[in-house]
Amino acid sequence: MDLRRLEYFVAVAEHGSVTAAAAALHVAQPSLSQSIRALEREMAVELFDRRQRPLALTAAGKALLDPARKVLTDLADARAAVGCVVGLAAGWLDVAVLDPLAVDVAPAIAAFRRQHPGVPVRVHGPRDEDDLVRHVVDGRCELGVTYLPVEHPAVRVEPIGRQERYRIHGSDIRTRHSEAVVPLLLAGGGAVVAGGYARRAAAAGAVLRRFDPPVCVQVGVVSQPQHLSPAARRLETMLRAYGVDDFSSLQSR
């Protein structure tokens, strides 16, 4: 079985269309379509219901999806293991990061990329904590950076730091949309922010206040340790070393 065909199959299943999958993989749409058709001929079964939009997996497609992901993950592990011998010079790494924490983990990821330029890091933005855990459990990502607690029997959770939350005095308005946080603060609205967003808001002129008593949240790395590639283990170590920005230097005003 052609591994590239499996990669294309998983991409179409995750993106819901050949067009989106081709764009994500940077391949020509006709080539991707031909590969999917070839895989279906090889397996003598249709994998997608093409009458639906977005494309839906048939029963056979659903049965193939998890094993295909595992094959690709195992292949990535093999490549990364070989790359580790020569200093992590090959492979790739998928990491899920909650959007509010993206600013805080960027230094660790940037340092990893400087040390291992041959290992691209693909950062996924899950919808919420539950979606992040699903990214790790189903093999789409090796690591997930999220707020704690996380309770799931299939994952290991390792704290890497904590963040204090700050508020706009006298406001009860909140937003979950990261791009709206700082502009909303500067426009006179309110929000609850932490870490890198607190630092950005203060630098932009917003007045932040601590809760009394302080309100802190734990941040941690979620993984399936038995499936971690050498690259993932290295980044996990760097995330622990760098921690997260808790903006502890902010003074109450």
UniProtKB/TrEMBL annotation:
Domain (HTH lysR-type): residue spans on this chain: 1-58
GO cellular component, one term: protein-DNA complex
Matching Pfam families: HTH_1, LysR_substrate
Keywords: DNA-binding, Transcription, Transcription regulation
Annotated protein name in UniProt: LysR family transcriptional regulator
Organism: Dactylosporangium aurantiacum
Homology family: Belongs to the LysR transcriptional regulatory family.
InterPro entries: LysR_HTH_N, LysR_subst-bd, WH-like_DNA-bd_sf, WH_DNA-bd_sf
GO MF annotations, alphabetized: DNA binding; DNA-binding transcription factor activity
